[in-house]
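Researcher: Re-running this chain for the archive, since the previous output was lost when a drive failed. Same request as before.
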Amino acid sequence: NSGATFLTWAPHIQGDLARVQWGNYSTAMANGWLPPQDANRISSQIYTINELGRPVMETGPGPFAPVWEMASLTTYDSLKVNYNMLTDETFANSYQQLMDTSMQVMTPIMENVDDMYGITLPLDQRDIPTSLLITPIFEGKDQ
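Model: Regenerated structure tokens:
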């Protein structure tokens, strides 16, 4: 048992066309892994959260790492699907290290991971500092 409380898959999206295509794909495919009531709630575009706590659609070529499929030993918030994890500076720095080395990276301790990524931890675990293990998944077997 790894002790992990949450697992999410976030694709690497680069380019304006890929950003738009991802939005189309993610909303079309959400019914394949989310209950219908949740699939209908997800954002059709990659987004971030502004200083007022409101979603703002991402523009430009990226890169982006939107939250996608999620598995949790607790619960998750389907509204976090397509949230761009690279808007978090700590995550973005670790993600860049992963991209530079093509190797697994453990983030420094992060606060409020449950709020940011949409997991709902039990009350006794909500303020526990957390690190994320980021693992690359490659398209080809030789990478």
